[in-house]
Amino acid sequence: MKRNTLSNFIKFLIIALSMLFFVFPLYWMASMAFKPETDWASFPPKLIPNPVTLDNFYKGLFTMGGLQGIFDSFIIAGSNMILSLIVGGLAGYGLSRYKGGRNIAFFILSQRFAPPIVFTLAFFTMFSLMNLLDTHIAVIIAHLTFNIPFAVWLMKSFFDGIPKDLEESAMVDGCSPLGAFIRVVLPVSLPGIIATAVMLFMFSWNEFLIQLFLTRSAVKPLPTLIPRFYGGHDILYGVVCAVALFASIPPIVIVAIFHKYLVRGLTMGYVKG
Predict the structure, then answer these.
(1) How far apart are CA 268 and CA 195, in angstroms?
(2) 3-class DSSP state of 49
(3) Second label for 202, Cα 20 to 30 Å away, from 58, 139, 152, 224?
């Protein structure tokens, strides 16, 4: 009995320390966002902001272009998510239902094996010649190159878990193949679609390297805007943490809303009909 109690205590202690290790940087970012400039580098550091200020949020969002960064990131991530879902969903369904699809799907996924910097330099040259640098279109197209392969592979695994008998029954009742796909397959695969959409959004929302190369001043996504928050002699740590905290809200909210679909969707491809 004592051994079990000691074992459970050790497990709890390990879990608690692990949680503290991963959660503390987030807490420190949040606390820095509400600290006045005089407390950014105070020693000993203040764990709890006192006094609390909202100046960092005002400077980051309104004075230094944080709102534009949020707007640009939403355009890029949202457009990329929708386009990747449409193309990836149709391609994944076709590869799932026809022979030889597995090999083709693996070839499509292999497009993500190369380092992003290889494609980034090529995109920079191509979009420079097309006068598309520093535009939303350039970043969206570039993000599609690594989001579509992921969407195809993931959606194919979801469709593999849906029995073909459902579509055949719908076609016997008069549906066309496209009608069976829209009326039968899509509703059944909704958890997988939502899980894929959330991951595609977060991939595009957090991507840094490609956006750094393809944007300048007209388009300022959050991942490339936040590193520009510096003063005459030092980094504006409070402003950086304030905008970073604000930028982390959309992914957290999306995951909180759709977490049930994420669990169902990510396990969907492992269940065969």
Answers:
(1) 10
(2) coil
(3) 58
Helix/strand/coil percent split, the chain, to 5: 75, 0, 25
Is residue 215 within 8 Å of 35, Cβ to Cβ? no
Contacts of residue 198, defined as CB under 8 A and 6 or more positions apart, other chains included, come to: 254, 255, 258, 261, 262
* The residue count for the chain: 273
| Residue where the block lists tokens 């902001």 | 49
Q: In the 8-state DSSP scheme, what is residue 174? A: T
Measured CA to CA, the distance from residue 92 to residue 102 in angstroms comes to 10
CA-closest candidate to residue 101, choices 90, 113, 112: 90
Domains for the chain: give ranges and CATH numbers: 65-268 (1.10.3720.10)
Per-residue pLDDT of 179-190, as tens digits, reads 888 888 888 888
Environment class of 14 (CB within 10 Å of its CB; exposed 0-12, middle 13-18, buried 19+): exposed
pTM of the model: 0.84
- Strand partners for 230: 235
Q: What confidence tens digit (pLDDT) does each residue in 97-144 have?
A: 776 666 776 777 777 777 777 888 889 999 999 999 999 999 999 999
User: What residues have CB less than 8 Å from 15, skipping those under 6 apart?
Assistant: none
How far is the C-alpha of 198 from the C-alpha of 253, rounded, in Å? 11
CA atoms lying within 13 Å on the CB side of residue 229: 25
**Residue entry with tokens 């083709």:** 104
